[in-house]
Amino acid sequence: SDVRLWGARFADGPAEALAKLSASVHFDWRLAPYDIAGSRAHARVLNKAGLLTEDELSRMIAGLDQLEADVADGSFTGTIADEDVHTALERGLLERLGPDLGGKLRAGRSRNDQIATLFRMYLRDHARIIGGLIAELQGALVGLAEAHPDVAMPGRTHLQHAQPVLFAHHVLAHAQSLSRDAERLRQWDERTAVSPYGSGALAGSSLGLDPEAVAADLGFERGSVGNSIDGTASRDFVAEFAFITAMIGVNLSRIAEEVIIWNTKEFSFVTLHDAFSTGSSIMPQKKNPDIAELARGKSGRLIGNLTGLMATLKALPLAYNRDLQEDKEPVFDSCDQLEVLLPAFTGMMATLTVNRERMEELAPAGFSLATDIAEWLVKQGVPFRVAHEVAGACVKECEQHGIELDELTDEQFAKISEHLTPEVRTVLDVAGALASRSGRGGTAPSAVAVQLAEVKTDLATQ
Ligand code: ARG
């Protein structure tokens, strides 16, 4: 028999080429458990509306339970001939219950409100999964910060030595951006907790169904949509999800790029664990940061998923258009990519070794304490404009003689400025420079300890 849900007014079945183009079952099959949950909820409101007897309802639920079990163990699957997951599952139900009962479930719903609902349910589950994986990565970063509370490193701007910072301070900066990503996911979830079920094709249902009951049944905390046209046609929840996952990718790529640089021979700031790095098929000595590189690469893919989706949505008239079938693969892919990437990335971060000596050796290099000279002068009452020039003259003197700031003699200091008494040496040491930046958010060990505690509290309350 014809599996299509719309055959009656057509003299001919679909052309092979159309069937191939139209099919989505190969990618929307992952929504099957959600479709069945939706069907159960729908059967209950049909019953409440007097359109299914108690007996029919219980046989319907039993049929759906059976179908669910058969989907779970793989004994029932959709085929290309089914077109999409909804059609396939209707076929499965008809096969189990016969046409008289099985044919009653479709009343008052459309694939348009079904897909809009199931897609939300799927993404909400995956927002939680991805949120959990991000928390694990934050845990690894917290672990790194905790294990190295007092390691100094060169802080950089423009990738040039800027000022010394604590390694823990730097690592926790990445944890902060991930905290915002996790928060974005939670806020998105709250906005998305609204069910389009009951919107029908676009106009709502004439059958006296209760969309609020379906929403409650399916775990949509904020009830059903206020407008059935919006419910079936809007996909900003998908675009926003794609943005958040792209942003996560971009944030990971920034950590990744640093790991790649830190892991070079020239930097030698970190060593990656063997289990989280790869070798070369020709160069026996190679140990490559492939996880970080894949993170960097996949971030491009995640951005592509977002931009592709935005392009699909642009100028699309209301209400449902088949273009919207193109909304699923990009974000399914974004979920899949992050769900394989994040555990590997977390493993890499949790197991890397920090080369403390190397970082601390370079922390004061490149005249990174010049700002400390200027700020010390300010504390002696020198205007900052003058102080900046005096410190700059110190750097110039050092460059001429190929030395670092702390190697300037008392005479050289005095020659540059009368304000540069030998006491200036107290700030020409990394520990002193770090400790002096003790205000909120700063790089002093005491300030970084506060940041660590805040990230840990944030993690514990997520
Ligand atoms: N497979 C479709 C999608 O993913 C489901 C809705 C189809 N509706 C329709 N009228 N053809 O968007």
TrEMBL record:
Keywords: Amino-acid biosynthesis, Arginine biosynthesis, Cytoplasm, Lyase
An example Gene Ontology CC term for this record: cytosol
Subcellular location: Cytoplasm
Catalysis performed (reactions): 2-(N(omega)-L-arginino)succinate = fumarate + L-arginine
UniProt gene name: argH
Family label: Belongs to the lyase 1 family. Argininosuccinate lyase subfamily.
GO biological process: L-arginine biosynthetic process via ornithine
Protein's pathway: Amino-acid biosynthesis; L-arginine biosynthesis; L-arginine from L-ornithine and carbamoyl phosphate: step 3/3
Name of the protein this chain belongs to: Argininosuccinate lyase
EC number(s) recorded for this UniProt protein: 4.3.2.1
Residue ranges occupied by any Fumarate lyase N-terminal domain in the UniProt entry: 19-304
Any one GO molecular function term: argininosuccinate lyase activity
Span of domain Argininosuccinate lyase C-terminal: 367-434
Species of the source: Streptomyces atratus
